[in-house]
Design goal:
Blueprint lengths: L12 H9 L14 H11 L12 E5 L2 H19 L8 H11 L7 E7 L5 H9 L3 H8 L2 H19 L3 E5 L6 H8 L6 E9 L13 H4 L4
Antiparallel strand pairs: 1-2, 2-4, 3-4
Helix pairs in contact: 2-7, 3-4, 3-8
C-alpha cells in the first residue's frame, strides 16, 4: 500500500510572510515601463490561485496602449456624468468626486491589467437550472464562485507584483462603466470584466492599512 506523503513546509516561510504582510498598494506610480517578461511572470503566478471546481475561468488583458486607456477613462467619466443627473445624486457632489477619483486610478500606472471572469458551469449550476431557482436564490446558494476565483487570482497578482519590486492598485469602481469598458476591450458575454489592477514602480511609499485583530475575524467551533 502506498503511503501518502505529507508535504514538508517550505524553508522560505519568512520570505512568503514578508511578501504577504508588507504593504504594496499605492495610488501614484512612476511612468517606467513594465517589461513584458515581468508581466507574463506575474500573471503566470496569479494563475496558480485556487479556483472553484478548478475551472480557472479567469482571463487577463495587459493594457499598455495609452489610446485605449484614454478611451476607458473617458467611458468612466461619461458614466459618472450620467449618474450625476439622477435625482438622488444631484446634491452629492463630494461623494461623486471621491468615487470618481477612485474609479480613475486604473489609468495612473504604466500597466493596467483587466481581470475577466466567466461563470462556472458546474454540476451544481446544472442542478439549479433544472430546479428552476430564481436568480436571487441562485446567488444566495452559489455565492458567485467565479468572482471568488477571480479575487483569489487578483490577490496573487498583487502579491507577485510586490515580489517583483512593483506596487499595485486593485480597483472595482470603474466597473460602473463595465459594459462600455467590455466593448472597448472586446469582451463578450458571459465573460465579464470584474476588476482593474494598476501595476508599476511606486512613486510613493506604500502604507499598510489597519488590519482587524485576529480575535475579531477568527472563531473556533
Amino acid at each position: 500500500m502506498t503511503s501518502v506523503q505529507t508535504p514538508s513546509p517550505s524553508g522560505n516561510r519568512d520570505g512568503f510572510e514578508a511578501v504577504v504582510r508588507e504593504p504594496c498598494h499605492v495610488r501614484r506610480f512612476l511612468q517606467e515601463e513594465v517589461p513584458r517578461e515581468d508581466m507574463e511572470s506575474m500573471v503566470g503566478l496569479a494563475t496558480c490561485a485556487a479556483s472553484a471546481c478548478n475551472a480557472q475561468t479567469w482571463r487577463f488583458i495587459a493594457i499598455r496602449d495609452h489610446g485605449l486607456l484614454a478611451a476607458m477613462q473617458a467611458a468612466v467619466l461619461e458614466r459618472f456624468e450620467e449618474l450625476a443627473t439622477r435625482p438622488g445624486l444631484v446634491l452629492r457632489e463630494h461623494l461623486r468626486t471621491v468615487a470618481r477619483a477612485q474609479a480613475l486610478l486604473f489609468a495612473k500606472a504604466p500597466l493596467c491589467v483587466a481581470v475577466l471572469s466567466t461563470p462556472v458551469d458546474s454540476p451544481m449550476e446544472e442542478l439549479m437550472r433544472l430546479a428552476g431557482v430564481t436568480q436571487e436564490e441562485h446567488d444566495r446558494l452559489c455565492a458567485r464562485p467565479e468572482l471568488q476565483s477571480a479575487g483569489a487570482a487578483v490577490q496573487l497578482l498583487t502579491s507577485s507584483a510586490h515580489a517583483f519590486g512593483y506596487a499595485a492598485c486593485w480597483t472595482c469602481a470603474p466597473i460602473v462603466a463595465g459594459e462600455r469598458l467590455e466593448e472597448l476591450l472586446g469582451v463578450s458575454p458571459p465573460t465579464r470584466l470584474v476588476a482593474l489592477v494598476s501595476i508599476g514602480r511606486p512613486a510613493e511609499v506604500p502604507t499598510a492599512p489597519r488590519r482587524l485583530p485576529l480575535e475579531q475575524v477568527l472563531t473556533f467551533r
